[in-house]
Amino acid sequence: MAFPTTRMRRLRTSAAMRGLVRETELRADRLVLPLFVSEAARAPEPIESMPGVSRLPLSSVVEQAREAAELGLGAVLLFGVPAEKDAEGSGAWDEQGAVQLATAAIKVAAPDLLVITDVCLCEYTDHGHCGVVRGDGSVDNDATLELLAGVAASHARAGADIVAPSDMMDGRVGAIRSELDSEGYGETPILAYSAKFASAFYGPFRDAASSTPAFGDRRSYQMDPGNGREAVREALLDAAEGADMVMVKPALAYGDLIAAVKQATRLPLAAYNVSGEYAMVKAAVAAGYMEERAAVGEILTSLHRAGADIVISYHSKDVAQWLSQTA
Questions:
Q1: Structurally, how many domains does the chain consist of?
Q2: Domain span at 252
């Protein structure tokens, strides 16, 4: 029935009433904290374009993971920053590599905290691309698959709870699933960066990981931001190859695709609130244009409302602390 019989404001009259009928709630255990593990760092190295975020030595990564566990966060997501790089990115599958050592150490220090590992080559290659580069400068999709599978297997051996390929090579989920299964890691889930766009919002991450391409760009393998149907198709293909969870990245400009991919796949879905999105909020807060706690809460809630079950965000620790203060 219409107004005046129906009055929507009746359910907005108090904080208790609004809380009772709230459709979407932020929860710490659905947040994931990204961490940059540096082989060269001896102390935390602040990342200028990402206030509050640093490249971390192993001891600091373990400390951050303990704090994440104490705050009730769902997981950490590890990125490696190697001391040396080469054309193939061989440091990515080194058993003594940054991610492998950090994974093993975290599983000892905080065994109940889930460790997700980023599976890619861009941080480890001297050219900054996510795969093997041919002589003509193009990325060789099929030659890259074996390397990515080896990276994922090395992470699983180190104790990773979830492996997350972010390279956007065709067929990499199937190659990783086959390798994990053959090595006895059939229970290790794959979180596929299924709809990862060639985005302007990655700049601060490339500062953090020193992974800016030395030539060209990644548009031949990352997605065109104008393509929504293709994002759904990518996610369905990853699901068919054995992905247990899928991801949309970035998040803020892609709420429509978070909803569409969730509807199409019915798989657990992660949204990556990426470095540029984080940096924009930090810059606006520093300038006095917005209140951080309210803005971050609204942004992350919107991603859950769109359909994300999991949100990966550099704000995760702050949000968990804020939630604990209101519990």
A1: 1
A2: 26-196+204-326
